[in-house]
Amino acid sequence: MRIATWNVNSIRTRVGRVVDWLVREDVDVLGLQEIKCRPDQFPVEQFEAAGYDLQIHGLNQWNGVAFASRLPMTDVEQGFAEIPGFGKPPKVEHQLDGDGVPVEARALGVTIDGVRLYSLYVPNGRAIGDPHFDYKLRWLEKLRDQVASTLAADPDLPLALMGDFNVAPLDEDMGDPSFVPGQSTHISEPERAAFRALEDAGLSDVVRPIVPEGFTFWDYKRLRFPRNEGMRIDFILGSAAFADRVTDAAIHRNERKGDSPSDHVPVAVDLEIEAEDDDDMPMIFG
Known about the structure:
Distance between the termini: 33 Å
Strand content: 15-25%
CATH class: Alpha Beta
Number of domains: 1
Mean pLDDT: 93
CATH architecture: 4-Layer Sandwich
Number of strands: 12
């Protein structure tokens, strides 16, 4: 099974590119982030014509996550336990967290062939000291709690968190000179500690051992892509049971090229899925 993640930075703008890539790369499951639309605005027809079913969690023109899959999806979950919200309560009906704050469309979980997957768009943080930065750290803390409780209940579960984490966990993951240590988000110690906490909870980066170098995001400004001044902020973090099944991985850098690309590129892994024994199969004698 080929699984991928991609922050598409508006699916309505880039549906052609995304569907073409899915078919060309023979992807079974894609977690999308920053779809920037409600489910009724999502370009469903193009995906269905290519053989993909959809699960969509989007509330407005901001954020939004989704899954496109050629395989059945079950146990669909919007958000996760105790997911924090941000901002002021809206005038229209909206999911609220325990403090009465609106919950954004940043997390979506599904189960496919016994594998539990989450498409995640971690808050950006904006600036150190900004309320959004504190929100980011709370969000990652609650995500860590979700991972820890899930794996405590089922240590052998093949679980993966996929998406835009808005954290460059290692120095070599940051190539944009405008991000300054001690002053900028994405590379601050609290954010990196939050990323390490996910690993301590039982996850590992399943792409880095196979693809040790390479960025996944380049800003549109200042010729960042031609100069290769990017960041590695898109990850697939898997439990031990998930990591043991990974046979290959790739960062699809070329998708940053061409007309109207997203500022992120897809990250993909190949997973070996064990076939279930079928005791009802007839015995064949030679």
